[in-house]
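Go through this pair.

…
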Amino acid sequence: MAKYLPDMKRLMDRKVSVQLNGNRKVEGVLRGYDQFMNIVLEDCVEKLGPMNDKEIGTVVVRGNSVFILEVLERAT
């Protein structure tokens, strides 16, 4: 199992931004992940450009498509 998994637990149920291959970006609430970094995002929005977002609901993102994952909210 990869070393990043314990750190991923801290991100559960928090809003994250995910930069994907192909210069795509989505934002949503992290609801799950596995050892391959496949992630489940809920209330997901695809960021298509300034003032141009597309609501896409719940999605599964394949781990090898994830380029950058960052948290958008502070820990409470």
